[in-house]
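task queued by scheduler; priority normal; single chain, no ligands, no partner chains; default sampling; output format set to structure tokens
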Amino acid sequence: MLPTNRMEAWRWADLAALETARATPRQNNAPPLDDLWIATDGPRLVFVDGVFDAGRSAPGNILVEPVTVDSRHPLAPASLGAGWRLTLDRERAVTGVQIVHVATGGENHVPGCIELGPDAVASIVETFVGSGWTNRLTTMRLAEGARLMRSVRLLQRDGFVSLRDEAEIGRAASLASIFLGAGGASSRIDGELVVTGDGGFAEMGGALLTRGEQRQECAVTVRHAALEGSSKQYWRAVATDRSTASLAARVDVARGAQKTDGEQSLRGILLQRTATVNLKPELEIFADDVKCAHGATVGELDRSALYYLQSRGIPDGAARAMLTRAFVADALDRIGEEAVRDAFAADAARWLDEALA
């Protein structure tokens, strides 16, 4: 049973777009993917309408197999069947993994699983393109000292993309997940990250760019259940036309999770006053020796900065684009790999050029 907008946690979700997308006839015509690959060495996987495309993949040590789903999330039951799994033993490393998800209509569901042993290292880029309802559940378990960098870009031209991340982060382990929503589809990025080991680090953030009647949202909770953990949630939203971007970020600190350092920064820019940005930062703290802070602001581009650039001979459109790129880069600069960061910045720049044309 799908969630509804009558549920508080789903009141901002564009569930009408989800229903329309799942009813769209499937075209079964995957586009060329050459322009989607980033210049990194590593395994490559392609899923078309939720089915692994072996002919266009080089999976390396990524397994494609049935992945068991154990989640209470309302969209999790749909994520059954064959998916992908990355398992690394102690001190092993796999970087530059790229997974491209192509949708041609209708609905498609793929589960993913990442399990990193002690001091293992991995970096993964996921890209979503096409049309329809794309639904993903990714579970992550990081043992002591493991490090995972995930970069996810939503470039699907229409339909709906729903992503659910569930992670357990062990002692001194680190998870950083950065998202870019720069397509035409509505979306929901949903996450629950639990820091279970002392000194663990969790980050989930990114930029959502909306236009037309599009609606994108994130709904992320970081739970601190151990000593000296830290977390960051840096989200940026840019909205124009009659679109809506919604950012909901929550930090829960358990009673025994002393010395926690949790930081939230939610910021939105309205390129037109007909657009909407919703912000909902939350803190629930049961420990008495923590450092947790949040900031939430929505506004328009700085008029004095625009005037300064225009006074230097920069046209209005170019000046607006420069300021907006800098605003979005604040989130994307947290991507650790230069080639990936540059590719995401280029996707954001293309969106801004079209939105501000």
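post-processing summary
- Residues 338-355 form the longest helix (18 residues).
- Residues 309 and 319 are 6 Å apart (CA to CA).
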